Amino acid sequence: MLKVASLLQKRGIPTTVVFAGRVDSPVFEMELRKMAERDGLTGRVEFIGQLDAQQLRDWYAAARVLVFPTCHHEGLPRILMECQSMGLPPVVYNIGGTSEGISDGRTGFLIPQGNFRRMADAVETLLKDDALRTTMSQAGRHFVEEHFSLPALAARHEDFYLRVPGLRANSAPFEKQPEVVR
Question: What is the CA radius of gyration of the chain?
Fold first, then answer.
């Protein structure tokens, strides 16, 4: 993320990077602080720690873009559903299950892992193009409602149960069906 912020700063696009969440390695945090200083990002990087639900909503509302440059093989990162439900378009590496959490080019951008320039390009595009950011924000909110809301999850579960052999639409999911003797 700091490499992306540095590229954007060199392009004349000053950004503020906010790292949220618990600190698993104080040594790594110090490395990031030194890197920020070395790259001229002093005063543009914040470490805000673990957030409660209200603080998280407030930060999502204050942000214009969420950048999630994870290099871990994530499952389906909850952060993608959170930010899009708040109308915040994500820019993420296409690794693990991240591609299941957004619609590339419609609700956010999937970037090949490690491609800092493409990530910076996507962030720059979203920061400069208010109309695109608004369109992606609305599409992201709809995407999360359509695929990850409680009604969407319930419908998928119901559909699964109805497709399991031996179950009928009017039976309880695990009720044994009477055997037909011929």
Answer: 21
